[in-house]
Amino acid sequence: MQKEKWCFIDTGNQDPAFNMAMDEALLYWHSEKLIPPVIRFYGWNPATLSVGYFQHVEKEINMEAVERYGLGFVRRPTGGRGVLHDQELTYSVIVSEEHPEMPATVTEAYRVISEGILEGFKELGLDAYFAIPRTDKEKESLKNPRSSVCFDAPSWYELVVEGRKVAGSAQTRQKGVILQHGSILIDLDEDKLFDLFLYPNDRVRERMQRSFKNKAVAINEISDRTCTIDDARVAFKRGFEKGLNIELVPYELTDEELAFVHHLAKTKYASDEWNYKR
């Protein structure tokens, strides 16, 4: 039986506004049936702190530290908490809500899409599995997160290895299309990450950072061999093909499509109105 063909786009390292504009543009083009479903890989130049759509920057983010580290900054169109995009492979999946393989509920759609990520970790020789909150306390903590840091705790169907989170994802649905994007950690500088957020006092920060070590981990901390970004690209491309039972076909953007993305980046995702609006 012939596999469904999806687009595959690897835009390499781009600035934060371009990255978010590209994801939104792909969502729009797919909603207009101009392109098939899409898997996209990308990186960040400069390394960037992204915040979730609903986060309050003034209350949660240490912008002085963001500037001191020379980081980019952008608000995502998806929910969730703050993510330091540095030594990672970032992915996005764009697919119609009406796709026959996509469940109606957000959590179940996470599970289906994340099968591709799960298979990617297996390609790297890691025994990853889905996080499924079991107790009422765990479920309640998802509704009321104690931390502004995305990797502080796994959500429904996010990927964990040895009990620690290795990939963080967020999802939005617009124009009848699912956009899920997320970070697959290759390496992680925990001190830099925790410098980027605001805390009531130093003791709270120390406690949270100590706790974080038991909740999140990067691939190269647990892998028997060093994983490069290129290794991850190969593994997770295969993983998405296997996990979603699809064939990925390279897609080249036209000059007009690129111009559309750059315009959206400049007018929306690079603007203070968007990034600091809450």
Describe this structure in words.
By secondary structure, this protein is an alpha/beta fold. The protein has one domain: BirA Bifunctional Protein, domain 2. Helices cover 38% and strands 24% of the residues. It has 11 helices and 12 strands. It has helices at 16-31, 57-60, 63-68, 106-123, 136-143, 190-195, 202-212, 219-222, 229-243, 255-269, 272-275; strands spanning 4-14, 38-44, 48-51, 72-75, 83-85, 88-96, 128-130, 159-161, 164-165, 167-174, 177-185, 246-250. The strands form 3 sheets. Strands 10-11-6-2-1-12 form a 6-stranded mixed beta sheet, with helices on both faces. Strands 4-3-5 form a 3-stranded mixed beta sheet, covered by helices on one side. Helix 1 (16-31) links the parallel strand 1 (4-14) and strand 2 (38-44). Residues 138-145 have low confidence and may be disordered.
Q: How many distinct beta strands?
A: 12
CATH architecture: 2-Layer Sandwich
Strand content range: 15-25%
Helical content band: 25-40%
Spans of at least 5 consecutive residues whose pLDDT stays below 50 are 138-145
Find the CATH topology.
BirA Bifunctional Protein, domain 2
The CATH class name reads Alpha Beta
Rg calculated over all Cα atoms: 18 Å
Largest sheet, strands/sense/barrel: 6 strands, mixed
CATH superfamily: Bira Bifunctional Protein, Domain 2
Mean pLDDT value:
91
Helix and strand content put the structural class at alpha/beta
**How far is it from the N-terminal to the C-terminal residue, by CA?**
49 Å
Label the overall shape.
globular
Tally the structural domains: 1
Oligomer status: single chain
Strand order of the largest sheet: 10-11-6-2-1-12
What pattern of helices and strands is seen along the backbone? EHEEHHEEEHEHEEEEHHHHEHH
Number of helices in the DSSP assignment: 11
GO molecular function: lipoyl(octanoyl) transferase activity
Organism: Bacillus pumilus (strain SAFR-032)
Site (Lowers pKa of active site Cys): 165
Pathway: Protein modification; protein lipoylation via endogenous pathway; protein N(6)-(lipoyl)lysine from octanoyl-[acyl-carrier-protein]
